[in-house]
Amino acid sequence: MSYFLNGFAEILSSGTLLIYMFAGVMLGMVLGALPGLTGSLGIALMLPFTYHMNALTALVFLLSIYTGGLFGGAITAIMINTPGSPANMMTMLDGYPMARRGEGGRALGIALLASVLGGVIGVLFLVVATEPLATLALKFGPGEMFMVVFFGLSCVGSLAKNPLKSVYAGLFGILLGTVGMSSVGTLRGTYGVLYLMDGVPMTPALIGFLALPEIFVLINQQSIADKLGESTVGPRDVLTGFVHVIKRPIQTVLCSLLGVIVGIIPAAGASVAGVLSYNQSKQWCKNGDDFGTGVDEGLIASETANNASEGGALSTLFVLGIPGSSSTAMLLGALVLQGWNPGPKLFIDHKDIIYTAFSSLMLQQIVMLIVGFILCSLAVYICKVPTRYLVPFILAFTLVGAFAGRYAIFDVGLMAAFGIVGYLMKKAEFPVMPLILGLLLGGSADSELLRIFQSYNHFYEIFKSPIVIVLTLVSAFCIVAPVVTKSMKKSKKANG
Fold it and tell me: What is the C-alpha separation between 104 and 108, in angstroms, rounded?
């Protein structure tokens, strides 16, 4: 704690570090808000510039981009139903309906303060429990990892009102997630296309399934405000959203802790944390059936968990050298550029710098609150822009976002194809979120299952692990609970 507390004095006394912190948070927030241009891309773009920085300045700058990027996607997810990054895909389920009711400012306020509080809890975990708890990740073998993925997939049935359509969409997503080269070197579903050897690229898929269908709908409107009703987005409305978060401290803490736990697990990331937190909140909350119609609890669940996962992901990065997400993988590259070797020895050799960086993470939450409040207060002006100007602008960024990942025109065509499929699904009332979840987790489920058969004589041997048993029971509860709850409510209505 002494290193952590001394870090505040060092950062606050350095004008250079404060400038880099504000610049990083703003850059991450803007990139996170633009569809396809995530905070991870910002870290990747800025990585070469950190080569000539000292280690602390580089860490503070890149971590600031990471922090801002986690919240930035919530702005467009709420206002135009297009998450700027995968971490905010659950935010739009309740944020956009609130904006359509004219409560866009309140939704942005809820998302902003929930993100800040989730980030604060994540940082506190990082400081207090990093070294002892990060070792837990070492106990996750192929069996445990498969059950973690299965746990995530068990949420599919509860993501929409029609469970059968959710399952079909989820299975289609899992099928897309297994495209490419398997862990044993077999090509599947590529049809000879080299660009699919590494699997379906995530950015074109997210833009295609989530953003383009909404853009197609926007074309027939004068402005976004036509769908948002008398939407008020101003400083007072954002502050009103803050109050609604403060009224729900228990959910805020529980969802943040769940996000931290998911963040510890390698390769899970903020998007998985948001999905699992949203699903669990839907089971816990009394108004769970109203999730997806614009309720405060849905926004709090998503935004607290995805920001809190930052603390968990960074703990495995610094202690074990295992990146928990694409952003932390970029940060790992920054550490290597500084000549560091991530792992347990890192805390011995560079303990002062590491904990000063942790101090900057706490200050970054305050910076995000200030910068985010300004951006959220100005968001209404975006909604008043005529669609004849806004749609080409958004389309240009979606094209750049799809192309920028691998500089491949193929990805732009893939985005367009997914956009058509997403639009048809929207027309047929098939939920797209189970598909996205299946796409995110399908590849992981497949590779972990293959590792199980390579490591064990029988699949059932994984149940010798108590972690697997616990995860199996929790997954079974997530599958059965929505069915039982719905049947009980139907019987009450019939009797009442």
Answer: 6
Number of neighbours of residue 189 by Cβ within 10 angstroms: 13
Q: From CA 213, how far away is CA 236, in angstroms rounded?
A: 32
**In whole numbers, what is the pLDDT of the chain averaged over residues?**
78
Digit-coded pLDDT (tens) for 52-65: 788 888 888 888 88
Nearest to 197 by CA among 178, 170, 174: 178
- Integer CA distances (angstroms), 316 to 136, 143, 328, in order: 10, 19, 9
For the stretch 36-46, pLDDT in tens is: 556 666 676 67
> What are the φ/ψ torsions at residue 392 (nearest 5 degrees)?
-60, -35
**How far is the C-alpha of 424 from the C-alpha of 441, rounded, in Å?**
23
pLDDT given for residue 51 in this prediction:
72
Residues facing 180 on adjacent strands: 188
Find the range with the poorest average confidence among 41-50, 65-74, 350-359: 41-50
Distance of CA 108 to the CA centre of its chain: 16
Predicted pLDDT of residue 331 = 74
Q: Which of 271, 267, 272, 274 is nearest to 444 (CA)?
A: 267
Helix axes 91-100, 104-134, angle to 10 degrees: 160
Report the pLDDT value the prediction gives residue 427, as an integer from 0 to 100. Answer: 86
C-alpha distances (whole Å) from 47 to each of 62, 211, 399 are 8, 28, 23
At residue 385, φ and ψ (nearest 5 deg) are: -70, 130
What separation in angstroms does the CA of 461 have from each of 136, 137, 148, 456? Answer: 20, 20, 16, 7
Beta-strand (E) ranges in 224-333? none
Q: Is the pLDDT of residue 163 over 90?
A: no
CB neighbours of residue 183 within 10 Å? 13
Q: Who wins on pLDDT, 225 or 62?
A: 62
Structure tokens belonging to residue 446: 């497949």
